[in-house]
Amino acid sequence: MNLIEITTNEFDVTINLAYAKSSNFTGKKIYKNSRCYLHKDAINNLTNAINIAKGLGYKLKIYDAFRPSEAQEKLWSFNPDPQFISHPQKGSPHSRGIALDVTLLKNNKNLDMGTPFDSFSEKSFHGNNNIGAQAKKNRMILLAIMTLAGWDYYKNEWWHYQLFNSKNWPILSDKSERTNLI
After folding, report:
1. Domain annotation for the chain: domains and CATH numbers
2. Which one from 70, 73, 157, 177 is the annotated catalytic residue?
3. Confidence label for 3 from pLDDT (cuts 50, 70 and 90)
4. Is 10 labeled as catalytic in the residue annotation?
5. How confident is the model at residue 1 (pLDDT cuts 50, 70, 90)?
6. 68, 174 in Cβ contact below 8 A?
């Protein structure tokens, strides 16, 4: 298995998997449990981001990481918008285990990022100027932390970071990886 479980005991992060509860954009629970996984090739980048954030007085909060191909199909069937959801056959970096959806916490509170996680609108784009000054600053801090740690970003979602050349990793399913998420 190429996936490593990310736990709050081993990694200094907060985990709040959006698709492990029904309060996500689909209104349905997609994952059976709240176990968070990441491909072993991305662990060093995650550790670097955690340490950079901590050094600046912040903490990472993870909304999603590995997303089995079966879950990608469910999200696509609910919202088939390629601007925000990858077609399952194309594969998402999440379905390859090399992407994170994150935000920053300061004193255990979410920073204002101008939109909530999974707000599928132009306001979610990196560089959007129709958000408040503090939200712009917070997005830039997150972007700086993640890029310094070696992550690439997706231009339409301030929360999405992935390894460079994401198509170099295969699409993974819940069955093949035995994560029991779906």
Report:
1. 3-177 (3.30.1380.10)
2. 157
3. very high
4. no
5. confident
6. yes
